[in-house]
Write a structure and sequence with these properties.
Length: 154
């Protein structure tokens, strides 16, 4: 009588478990990457909205004395007051944006085609999960917006 060959079933025990664990890890990584991507997208949108509101508020800082002196034909924005308005706007609104660590990068008042243009740039680090676990530095998100102060004919 010859000895029985080893069972094929016994040699493959545990392989399904290894595959299942690998599949679960892969699914969790894809979900975490999707979470990081959506956080980046929503944070970028929130920063753009903050910059837009700040630029519109700053474009309202019109030099009234210069406007009256020109007979209502010329609009100028006072850069010092525009910067202060942007700072106040961000201090009051950044906490409600859902983005932590918002910083003002720049405020610029330049001459535009339709009148003075105020450009605001804000930045914040992206909120990440999987990237932090992998030791990757969170990317910096940036929001940029411009608003023009122009004279409309009555």
């Amino acid at each position: 009588m010859s000895p029985r060959p080893p069972s094929v079933r016994g040699a493959e025990e545990g392989q399904a478990l290894v595959l299942l664990i690998g599949l679960v890890v892969l699914v969790l990584m894809v979900l975490a990457l999707g979470w990081d991507t959506s956080n980046w997208f929503l944070g970028h949108r929130a920063l753009a909205n903050l910059a837009d509101g700040a630029a519109v508020a700053a474009a309202g800082e019109v030099d009234v004395a210069a406007w009256y002196a020109s007979g209502g034909r010329e609009v100028q924005v006072v850069e010092r007051r525009a910067r202060a308005t942007v700072g106040s706007y961000l201090a009051g609104s950044a906490g409600d944006s859902g983005v932590a660590g918002v910083r003002l990068r720049s405020v610029a008042v330049t001459a535009g085609r339709g009148g003075p243009e105020v450009t605001v740039v804000v930045a914040a680090p992206a909120r990440v999960g999987l990237l932090r676990l992998l030791g990757v530095v969170p990317p910096l998100m940036e929001g940029r917006a411009a608003a023009t102060a122009r004279l409309l004919e009555p």
